[in-house]
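Let's do one together. I've listed all components of the complex below, 637 residues spread over two lines.
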Amino acid sequence: MLLKISWRNIWRNRARSLVIIIAIILGVTGGNFSASVRLGVEQQNFRETVENQVSHIQIHHPEFIANPEARFRIPGGNNKAEEISEHPGVSSVSARTVVEGMAASANMNSGVMIKGVDPESEANTSGLDGLVTEGSYFEQEGRLPPAIVGRELAETLLSDLGSRIVLTFQDINGEMISASFRIEGLFEVSSLAFEKSKLFVRSDHLNELIGDTSAVTEIAVLLSDNDRYREITDELQGLYPESKVRHWADMRPALFYSLEFLNQNLIWLVAIIIMGVSFGLLNTILMSVLERIRELGILMAIGMKKIRLFGMIVLETTMLAAIGGIAGLFSSWALISYLGRRGLDLSGTGGEGMGEFGYASVIYPALEPAFYFQVAVVVFVFAIIAAVYPAWKAIRLVPAEAVREE
Amino acid sequence: MKTVIKTNGLSKTYTNTAVPVKALKNINLEFREGEFTAIVGPSGSGKTTFLNVIGGLDKPTEGSVAIDDVDISSMKESQLFDFRLNHIGFVFQAYNLIPVLTAMENTSFIMLLQKRPKKEMEERAREMLEQVGLSDKMNVRPSQLSGGQQQRVAVARALASKPDFVLADEPTANLDTESAFNLLDIMARLNKEENITLIFSTHDQRVIERARRVITLVDGEVSKDEQFERD
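Okay, and this is what the predicted structure of the assembly comes out as:
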């Protein structure tokens, strides 16, 4: 009966209840949507960073990190890459020869990180083939060896597909080497810094030039499970103590902390919005209590205990919050699911500038199912808090006085 | 007939006003089972205060109220809630009913709080609504009932749980003459049939003439206590 009375009570002033329900729906939807955009951006950034840039794990000679030179190679690099690829948690491995150097065109030059790769294993590990938006991916055989260049770098060099570029770098003995390459493909990623600083050639071409045909300076490891990177890093470090094994969180700490911060604190973004809305809810319930003083007095006079009366007011508040909260969760889920598939294209609204900061201009909002549950709990908790004052006000009424209230 | 209510040296002084107001002064009364009593007197004579004190809604400043030999004036608030629920029926001046419940649900409400079995509750509520002539309005909400009909539902609710006595504070104050007589007839009939003690306050002469016992209060004191033979 208490449920029935509470349910009917909230519809006594239909317009007022609808206003607060709509406010809750908008609050929950707005909060969830902004949280999903924030999380979507970072998750996209994570995916691109791990899947296209640094992989889950990288292995180097310990000196290579400070001095990326060909003399700091991984001993038995190809064998190690082979062994690692057998690990059940590993999806693919790319053994690279990475050297710092200079790329020059007829007009301009730019400092670059030259990555010598095996086209097939690189495609499996960093998906480089899929990032090529113009030209082809190590398919052409010509007089000059091919290079896959970031579009931003090509623009810096005032070069285009088919253009010749000269790469200058040190060989294994520290001697300067220059060699010509032809741009076969242009790749694009969200991060303009990556596009501008990375250049891919075939490892057999590069190794020949640096003077060690089996040279490996970097082993990039892509895992099949995002969550196992720490465990497998430790395992590999144990296997190869002479090398430095690092995971993506070590290499991109800003991204790691950003994701950690979001995972732990994103709920507060929604909680603050819901807290604001809960003041509206408090006001609605308080008004309804003050309008019913006589009625509440009569209920107490005829023997309805204060605890029940308190429960009735709390029930009315939580029912309003539940209607708004559930509808808000559903509408935000629908909106986020739709935009998560279709993408939120900010390129027409100045979003193209996001690439400067390493972000994509098309955002795919995303929220974990558990987050919706957390929001539901937050709505419930704030509804209870909002109910306390009106309910307390109700039970403080003196029945003998309340029944005479006009 | 056994004594249902007994007041002993009952006084009530309100001190939350600029000047303390003595609303009741040394009232010694007894009400017996099945009595049909009107508490009359001009406005401010203490009628409502008296009903509130014997109904456990207010506490006396001095003296005591015993219901079936149980002193309720020393009870804690939570005990009073239970006591009112199980022993006393109330009918107020107006807007007695829970607006969101139907006549049937309103009539069952006290029995529901008492956790009576559903079947018994429904049968009794139906019977009471028939008694007050509203069997055709069982599923109607108070807003669709006239003032007189609403008061009849309030009477049905007050009597449905078979309390020791029913207190009605000016139940006819907001009713036209016909509705007032109609309500009083019903109350008088139910008083006899159900043998429930009924005490109501009024300053309406038409109502006073129906009561079998009339207690007149003046300035918080009993000035007259008369018995009448009525049909």
